TrEMBL record:
It is found in: Cell outer membrane. Belongs to the SusD family. Pfam families: SusD-like_3, SusD_RagB. Its main location: membrane. This is RagB/SusD domain protein. Residues 305-514 form the RagB/SusD domain. GO terms for cellular component: cell outer membrane.
Amino acid sequence: MKIKPLYTLVLTAMLSSCSKDFIDRPSLSGTTTGNYYNNADEVRAATSTLYSGLPWRNYESRAQDAIGDVMSGNMFTYTDVEYLNFTVSSASERIGASWGAFYKIIGYANVMIKTFEEKKAAGGGAAYLDPAIAECHFIRGMLYFYIARTWGAAPIITDPGATALSGNFNIPRYIQKDVLRFALEELQLAETGLPESDVPGRVTKYAAKGMMAKLYLYNKDYANAKAKAEEVINSGKYNLVTDYSGMFTKMSMNNNAESIFSIQHQLAQDPWGTGNIKNPDRGAGALRTSEADAWEMYVPSLDLLKEYEFGDLRRQWSVMEHGWTNPNWKPQRVNAPKYNAFMANGFKYDTLQPTADGGSLSPTRANIIKYFAGPGKSFGGDPVLGQNSGNNVVLLRYADILLIYAEAVLAGGTSTSDAKALDALNKVRSRAGLSPKTAFTQNDIMHERRVEFAFEGDYWYDIQRQGYAKAKAMIEKQNRGTVTGATYITNFTEDKMYLPIPSGEIVQDPELGKDPVPYYK
């Protein structure tokens, strides 16, 4: 889906907020239910804001990497070391950024739900208002699912306007199981109200079913996880794409047959965040050109590199290592004759060549391909504008549904050879060029999920849902060091299973620093 240009009122809304991130809501000054939202185009232009990279920017840029992949042991970094060594404090920039992004988007969804319901009550068309309301419920449910997994107990806000008018900003944290229940109820509302199909990029009831399957699995409700995943599989609406790497590196593959929900990006530098800005953080420095920035802030961990089976094609589709080539990329630089000669016949990832002459010497001698679009259009890659590419960021794809189904059939057991579960698992393995399994265990599933979704911000939550004892064992086995020295975690304690509430939020609302309370009475 290409996001339509936003109306002035929506852009204005994005710049207006309350003093607390978790009660942010857009201002609708100048807009009333009487003079706007009179047709589907106006309503869909508003809900397109929920998909845009603009409100998601502070999460997907670095916070997603730090929480989902650095903390899980999939990435090494010299920048977010507190996530690498589990010394994260409530003052962490990434915590504040993700918290702010999540609650800001929830604020937009909250106001849209209220506005659209008022419009419908005043005689507005249910045919276009109901699906929009359901879109908002999907976003709200998905984000509270993220919040519950990231912070555990957290505030739930559904009417920020009423909260602001009341003057009572002492919002408590609610227990995690209630936040998860609220998220599930939101996704159920979305499932009921969303259409069977829509234009590429817009969520449908199958996106809601897929996210519900993921939530059920997190809750170890295997029967419902299996049922919802099976509904998505049986719909026939999604497939595994053959070009795995292209899902993340080619604009032409945005909203492909595997994508179920993606943050929608456009190739643009203004406003900041419209484009995908993961490009430079992941790109090998040897690919920095006049068109594309690349400073390799995050690189694959040695532990992840060890995880790939021999012959797993996902390794070369996700990671650049010595000998990796792309003959189409021909980066060139001004006043760099040795570099230009080395790259003249195509990019070569080389760990022996001096870096000034085109060599790559990251701390783990590897770099990330996912979400790196290349050195720029003039040099044989996809278009890049400095730090910006046009690649969508995928948050739910069909491979996840297949692996959810397989794990739900296993249902915490020792192993299974169930035919349908094996078929789901082996579809994912077959694309990766691996031989099929005849039975699998929970460890097999965790392995498969780790390499399949590496660098997609998800593996920390997979570790977390194993429970503290197993999570601790997994973390302590990981080599989190570099080629010059191994590093192992010895300080992993149960309080590190969830991140702390941002300190600035607790200062403004001391209730957030207290024990959580039930949301449901």
